[in-house]
Structures are given as C-alpha cells and as structure tokens.
Amino acid sequence: MSVSKIAIIIGSTRPSRISPSIAQWLQTNLQTADLAVDLIDLAKVDLPLLDEAAMPSDGNYTLPHTKKWHDLITGYQGYVLLFPQYNWGYPAPLKNALDCLYSEWRHKPVSMVSYGGHGGFQAALALSLVLRGLKMRWLTNNLEITLKPDELDDNGQFKDAEQALAPYKFDVRQLSAEFTHLLH
C-alpha cells in the first residue's frame, strides 16, 4: 500500500499566533505508516493578494508565486485547514490562499481544525461555504479546539501543548482513519 500525502495548512499569519504548536501536535498525531503529513505555513508562503490577471478557474497562472503555490498544493491528496476564529470569521490569508487556485482543490478531501476561546464554530461555518464553492470533499471529522485561559501563558502560548490538546487526541485519530480510508 502506498503512502498518501496530506498537508496541514496553517491559516494564521499573526506574529503572536498559537497555530504552529497546534499544527505540530496535529502532524504528530495524524501521521501513520499510510499517511504522511506536512506543514504548510501561510506566513512563509507569503502569497500576495489575488494579483493574477486571469480568474483562477481559468488555470492560466502567469506569476511565479502562483505557479509555485499551484505546484505545492497539487503535491497533496488532502488537506487540513488550521485556523483561528477572528470576530466569527477566519483569517484573510487563508481565504486568499484558497482563492488563488481553483481546480487544484476540487474533489480533494479537507478537514477544518478551528480554534479560539469558544472553539471557532462560527469561523468553521463561514469557511464551510467556501469549501463547498470549491467543490472540496468536506470530511466528517472536524475539530473545534477551545483555548482555555489557564492553559496559556502570558504570551498566549500553551504552557503544555500536549496536555492542553490531549482531549482532542481521539478526534485526531478518527480524522487520520478517515483520511486513510478515503485515500487508500
């Protein structure tokens, strides 16, 4: 059996974000012998705001950064979108990254992992409409991670990420199994 590749796309670019530690924890807990999991950090990808002349649905990419983004994304069979809830929405860099491409997303399995003081339900709800528009295969396992103030330090980072995220471990195993079932 071959190994399937999925990517966790870190949707926040805010300097004080907690998402890299969540992403690393997810990667460790999602990865199996049949499932390779990479991290894509939108802060490092640094996509400009929709600067291609043609619509992404045309697939006529002319700018080097869009071609590079296309090449990166097409190397994966599925995605986990990791993002915080900002004022009941999701971060603009994530929307931009999705909107820069079109057919590359079609029919690919996707899971959402939102987080925030209340888990990010509203942000996940808003993003689900975009994923439907892109015709992605929305998985049944999606996580809403509630950040508890007593588990965070003065800089808003986990005191102990493993302990804080432990309640979500079963859900991540279920997500891993769902990806493995769909991709094999």
UniProtKB/TrEMBL annotation:
Q: Which GO terms describe its cellular component?
A: cytosol
Enumerate the GO terms in the molecular function aspect.
FMN binding; oxidoreductase activity
Instruction: List each coiled-coil range.
Output: none
Please state every residue range assigned to the domain named NADPH-dependent FMN reductase-like. Answer: 5-139
What Pfam family is a match, any one?
Answer: FMN_red
Protein name as annotated: NAD(P)H-dependent oxidoreductase
